[in-house]
Amino acid sequence: MPAGADDVARAAEPSDERYNKQGKLRSAVYDEEMARLQEQLVLLQYWIQSQGLKVLVIFEGRGSAGKGGVIKRITERTSPRTVRVVALPKPTERQRTQWYFQRYVEHLPAAGEMVMLDRSWYNRSNVEWVMDYCSEEEHQEFLRSCPEFERMLVRSGIHVIKYWFSVSFEEQRKRFEARNAEPLKRWKLSDMDLAEHELYVRYSMAKDTTFQFTDIKQAPWFVVPSDDKKAARLNCINHLLSQFDYVDMAPDVVEIPEMRQEPYVRPPIHEQTFVPHLF
Fold first, then answer.
1. For a FRET experiment, which of 15, 110, 211, 213 has its CA 20 to 30 Å from that of 252?
2. Could you tell me which residues come within 8 angstroms of residue 190 by beta carbon, excluding any fewer than 6 positions away?
3. pLDDT, tens digit (0-9, with 9 covering 90-100), for 22-40
């Protein structure tokens, strides 16, 4: 593997008690910090609603790098009406004939929303280019158009935040082997994942080229080294929160009303069909 093919996580200081002997963040540290961050994410959600902000967060990176894991933790406590996840399937035949960015436009955030793209239009400069699913002309046109498209989004008032989750070849292999060893997780190991692992260096080339053209001032890339999954999640969410000067806009405690009495007699309960009472 060529030097600099991808980023690796920093080594933990030997005296840092937050990490175990393998240099990974301890679960107790992770759980405590994640609970705090998820509380802050709810406060951020209220702030986005109250200010009518339009927030677009793009998650890209290699297979098994941890994009899905951090998205799951962000949405675990937030409202799906405010914080939406968009993970588009393969384009239809009709969509293939559209302007490349067209199918993504309808999913952009409205006022008071945060949309998280679990992979995005950057499929064109990564998966599609590596796997020869697009022509070289289409690839070059994307690299020219994408920065202008994102600048246009920013000018329109959308906050565009882009994260690239980076994982080393060795760690990616461990994660793929773990999926392969467990029947209940084997569905997560696709033919595309196997091809990506084999073409690891070519994906490094794709990432470097993508950054060269699209790491722009208006919407820069933020790299998240993720060999330590737990540390990566905390680092990413901390950074996301730091992008907003938000304040606590949580609603006040409300009074729960008593049941209003109505002149109504319900039908006999034995007329209903219940599921079997196994527990």
1. 110
2. none
3. 889 999 999 999 999 999 9
